[in-house]
Structure to design on (167 residues):
């Protein structure tokens, strides 16, 4: 092979290597930029970010309302007690009250149920703390039942069975 061929061959090989090298660099930059701009965010991270943003706004809003109330610029919202009657259900509740509530529940067609949990340190699951039941009646005041789950009678008692029947 002549020296001219070798130089030409060498230079074309060198050009290919430079081209490949520059392609690899641009791909590596693209990959780096892609990874930098589009980092995977887990659903838990997204939820945490949303919660932090929501909680911050809620705290600011509550502080604003608190300041308005303290400065006498507004009054507290109070629900008229004539719109509802509430009952706390626990181990001290009499069987007669439970029977009356059960009888009333049979007449009701509209009701709502809400539950609250007592948060525990992870990995321990949350414990039920409160069951809220509202019986909505067309003409009479609503009845709100607050069942305190940490203060229930023993599970084998007749009172506990009545509370289960109420739910």
């Amino acid at each position: 092979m002549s020296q001219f061929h070798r130089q030409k061959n060498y230079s074309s090989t060198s050009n290919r290597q430079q081209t490949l090298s520059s392609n690899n660099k641009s791909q590596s930059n693209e990959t780096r930029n892609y990874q930098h701009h589009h980092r995977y965010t887990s659903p838990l991270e997204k939820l945490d970010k949303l919660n932090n943003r929501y909680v911050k706004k809620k705290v600011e809003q509550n502080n604003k309302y608190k300041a308005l109330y303290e400065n006498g610029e507004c009054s507290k919202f109070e629900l008229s007690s004539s719109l509802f009657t509430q009952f706390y259900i626990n181990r001290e509740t009499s069987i007669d009250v439970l029977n009356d509530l059960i009888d009333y529940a049979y007449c009701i067609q509209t009701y709502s149920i809400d539950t609250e949990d007592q948060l525990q340190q992870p990995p321990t699951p949350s414990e039920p703390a409160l069951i809220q039941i509202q019986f909505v009646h067309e003409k009479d005041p609503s009845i709100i039942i607050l069942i305190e789950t940490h203060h229930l009678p023993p599970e084998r008692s007749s009172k506990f069975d009545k509370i289960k029947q109420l739910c």
Summary: The chain has four helices and four strands. The chain has three domains: 1-38, 40-78, 81-166. Helices lie at 3-37, 43-70, 95-107, 158-166.
